[in-house]
Specification:
Helix content is about 50%, strand content about 10%.
Length: about 600
């Protein structure tokens, strides 16, 4: 390994400079671009922009020299784009003077007799087309205008490719810099004595993955997914060591990694999108890789943490032979397809219907903020065909287990162990499901959180609609407001002398009456869903005014679109039953309980 301080002009001595196909794409942002431009424009000091690790590949007959960028593609790409945007900013006469420098540093010829120039730095698939367009001046004006440069400080988000964002940032920033300064910056960047980089050259025989990992541990931030990907395909290159090995591994990578995780911008955005998992936000790809590691058994939730994930993958991968590694890569690919298609997320526009079992399960898991069972669900989806009864049965059992434990407020710390046990033996789910009895469920419904009550009432409503032939609207959005019929602050408008005990006898002792009434407020029988929240002052009124409203303050009647409000509460009221008390709450709790244990059986 040889390290040497060099200027950017080292590029003129190289042929094809190749980013390994399995490295992450370009990820630098406006903060990096501002820093590097501000730093380089300070002509009164010397600059050091970091290191590049390059690996010279063995020269093959009939092919141009090739060098792999093991580390440093972010700064090398950024500097190349800066040089090109500086060139673009010049008048035509200066461009003519600089043309040979641009051609020697940013382009190469396969053969000296060739007419065509090829872009010197070759990115992976998703970045390659954008980088090529920038360097070859093929970004149209309309495309340029559509590029949005992300700026967190100004709260400007962007889905534009980062290479195009970099190009536009430098192009716009240079408009505010004098011609003299731009010329000096261009000349300094391409001055062989301006040694702004340390270039580390590896021989063909040196282990670049080990060096890459050393650099990473020293502070170059890579995600677990990047480290896993690099380890998997470096191992593949080691095992496919025959004449066609590299091409075979590239094909394997293209078919089973690139086409899944970085086929296009939508794919990249999906796998980089974070989800809430417990108290953490994790990218989809990290959730996937964690799930696979649990399924395969080399990540033990009882022993390991997420910070161990990449190291555990490496330990697992290093033991695989050629056939096993190929099979494992294909497994990752299949799990990824299943994850993207089946591990659902929802937004305010999502519609739900009761007989969509899959959406119901994931909606419940999302509202309960439970992702612990994703590995088990993925293992079932991998094992069974979509229409197999066994798959539906096991997923429904899991759903019932989660709901019944949520109602009974059973602890969730054991979910990691449960998930591991379920993967080993599906029958364990049924035995765990029976732990929460119907009596415990009924007791849990007597005091339930607003969030959980809203979830249960929503799916009870959909269940009833599904079974009502007169009901044409089977789909609903999850955008209703929870209302306590007997308000949480009832004292001003609700008479304490109306409080009944369990024998439906009026309680004579005021303090005991208050205690009983407070205990019923958070019973599910006292809660309902409205399509809009009531006015803050109106929600504390007595039952009649709360139903009818007052003046411009609209009451429950105005927002009772759902059957659980219209039939359970309004219909009896309209028939003359204008009292809402503990007896009504208990009776409705019992009715809702029967629906709940029908939907989510033990």
């Amino acid at each position: 390994m040889k390290a040497e301080a060099m200027s950017l002009t080292f590029l003129s001595n190289e042929g094809l400079v190749k980013i390994p196909f399995f490295q992450r794409g370009y990820v630098w942002n406006i903060e990096n671009w501002e820093d590097i431009l501000t730093d380089l424009l300070d002509f009164n000091k010397s600059h050091f922009l970091g290191s590049l690790i390059l690996k010279q590949l063995e020269k093959q007959t009939g092919k141009s020299n090739q060098v792999l960028v093991i580390d440093g593609q972010q700064r090398l790409t950024t500097l190349s784009i800066l040089v090109k945007t500086l060139y673009n900013s010049f008048e035509d006469d200066i461009k003519k003077n600089c043309l040979s420098s641009i051609e020697s540093h940013l382009f190469f010829k396969k053969n000296q007799t060739d007419r065509n120039l090829l872009v010197k730095i070759e990115h992976s698939k998703i970045d390659k087309k954008h980088f090529t367009k920038v360097i070859k001046d093929e970004v149209s004006q309309s495309e340029y205008d559509s590029i949005i440069v992300e700026n967190p400080i100004l709260k400007v988000a962007s889905k534009s490719n980062k290479i195009l964002q970099c190009f536009k940032y430098f192009s716009e920033a240079l408009k505010n810099i004098s011609v003299e300064k731009r010329e000096e910056l261009f000349n300094r960047l391409l001055d062989k004595d301006n040694k702004i980089l340390v270039v580390i050259d590896l021989s063909d025989k040196e282990d670049e993955q080990a060096i890459f990992d050393t650099i990473n541990s020293a502070g170059v931030r890579l995600s677990s997914a990047d480290i896993v990907k690099n380890a998997v395909f470096q191992k593949a290159l080691d095992l496919f060591d025959d004449e066609n090995g590299v091409e075979e591994v590239e094909t394997l990578y293209t078919e089973h990694w690139e086409n899944i995780f970085s086929l296009d911008e939508d794919s990249i955005n999906f796998w980089e999108t974070p989800r809430v998992t417990g108290r953490l936000m994790r990218d989809n790809i990290e959730i996937l890789l964690h799930s696979i590691s649990v399924i395969k058994g080399f990540f033990d939730p009882d022993k390991h943490t997420l910070s161990d994930l990449s190291a555990l993958y490496k330990e697992y991968i290093i033991k695989l032979d050629k056939v096993e590694l190929v099979a494992f890569i294909k497994e990752i690919s299949k799990y990824a397809r299943l994850f993207r298609e089946k591990i659902l997320v929802f937004d305010d526009t999502s519609l739900f219907k009761y007989d969509d079992d899959h959406s119901r399960l994931f909606h419940i898991l999302n509202i309960c903020e439970i992702s612990t069972f994703h590995p088990y669900i993925l293992s079932l989806l991998y094992k069974y065909n979509e229409d197999e009864p066994s798959l539906k049965k096991e997923l429904k059992n899991l759903e019932s287990l989660v709901v019944r434990r949520m109602i009974t407020r059973a602890e969730t710390k054991s979910y990691n162990k449960m998930c591991k046990d379920f993967i080993k033996d599906e029958t364990v789910v049924s035995s765990k499901l029976s732990e929460q009895t119907n009596d415990e469920v009924l007791n849990g419904l007597g005091s339930i959180s607003n969030k959980n009550a809203k979830l249960l009432l929503f799916w009870i409503e959909l269940y009833r609609r599904q079974n009502d032939s007169k009901q044409s609207m089977k789909e609903l959005k999850y955008n209703y407001s929870l209302e306590h019929v007997l308000p949480q602050r009832w004292e001003e408008y609700w008479n304490v002398i109306d409080v009944l005990d369990s024998n439906m006898t009026i309680i004579q002792e005021p303090e005991k009456a208050k205690s009983i009434r407070y205990s019923k407020i958070y019973s599910i029988g006292n809660m309902t869903l409205l399509n809009s929240s009531l006015n803050t002052s109106l929600r504390n009124y007595e039952f009649k005014r709360k139903i009818e409203g007052e003046g411009r303050k609209r009451g429950i009647r105005a927002y009772a679109d759902l059957g659980i409000t219209r039939f359970d509460i309004l219909e009896p009221y309209d028939k003359g039953d204008e009292i809402w008390n503990e007896a009504k709450i208990e009776a409705r709790t019992s009715t809702l309980f029967r629906d709940i244990v029908t939907i989510w059986k033990s």
